Every structure is written in C-alpha cells, then in structure tokens.
Amino acid sequence: MTTAPRKRPARERLLAAADELMFVDGVVLTPVDVILRRAGASPATLYSNFGNKDGLIAAALERRLEDWTQAWDAAIAAADSPTGRLFAIFPALRDYQRERLQERWCAFSGTAAAMGDPAPAIARMLAAEDELLHSRLLEFAAEVAGPERAADLADQVAVAYLGTLAGMLRGDQEIAIARGELVARTLVASLVGE
C-alpha cells in the first residue's frame, strides 16, 4: 500500500506562494488572503511563521537572495579571468532569468519601488542585496582596474546591470541582458583599455 506524498511544510508553501504572487503581481497589490489560498494555509500559520505580511515579504526576499547568490556564485566559478568575474553578473542573470524567474522584474527593485518606507526586516533584505551587488563588483573591479579605479568601474557596471533589469521589464529579457553586458564591456574598455 502506498501513501500519498506529504505536503510541503506550511512555511515553505507560504514562501512559494509569496514568490509566485507578490513578485509577479506586486508586494503591495497582493492581498494576504490570496497568498493564504495559494499556499493552503491559515492566517494563524502565516502569523506564527512570519509575524505579518512584511515578515513574509522579508523571508521571501531572503530566499530570493540566496537563490540569486548561488546563481552568481556559479557564474563567478565558471569565469576564467578577472574581467570574466566582473562580467559574471550577466551570465548569472541570464541563467537565473531562464531557470528561476516567473516575472520580468527584479523582486528587490519591485519591492523597493512599491514600498517607499519598508518595514525594518524588508529594508534589511533590500540593503543586503545592494551590499552584495556593490561589494562583489568592487572586488572584481579592483582585480581588473586596480584599487584606484575600482570604485568608478564598479559603479559603471552596477549602472549597466540595473539598467538591464529595467530593460527586462520593458522588452525582451534576453536582448536586455545582452545589451546590458555590451554596455558594461564598453565602459570597461573605455576605462581600462580591455
């Protein structure tokens, strides 16, 4: 006799529902009752696991950041040069978009745009994503251009990446990523002659 597979824990179902709904439809526009229905969970379960909707958003962003970091780590590991590590954010974004994204927009940018004054837990996750972006780009830019030009180079690549995210929202995602990477490469070439 076989038994039916057990459902995922309620916490995981809530995070999956939040990911599927809030980062597609918007964190502000997605009502809690819709998330609860999708997850097959009760309000008490949401509140006992996350405290409130803001806690759920923060936890969903944390999970997103872990997934994104893994994708970026893989692209960095595949890079064969300092310049390759600097530009690894683009193949990482390409793979992440193909394999993991359901929406056309960055969950972090969308959340920041929707919540002008986010709750502290959400603000911490937005800051953590920003810190990851800028610290890694600065590290890799220093390898390419040296410490004296690293900050300028890292900022330029960050602008190209963030512009790519906006381009993904407004048009074809693959084309937006390719154009963003081309812009970043052009900026690097003009700054360091590569």
Walk me through the structure:
The chain has a single domain (10-192), classed as Tetracycline Repressor, domain 2. 79% of the residues lie in helices and 0% in strands. The protein starts with 9 loop residues before the first helix and ends with a helix. The model is unreliable at 1-6 (pLDDT under 50). It has 10 helices and no strands. It has helices at residues 10-25, 32-39, 43-50, 53-78, 82-87, 89-99, 107-114, 120-145, 147-170, 173-192. With 194 residues, the protein is mostly helical.
SSE map:
Blueprint: H1 10-25, H2 32-39, H3 43-50, H4 53-78, H5 82-87, H6 89-99, H7 107-114, H8 120-145, H9 147-170, H10 173-192
Helix pairs in contact: 1-2, 1-4, 3-4, 4-6, 4-8, 6-10, 7-8, 8-9, 9-10
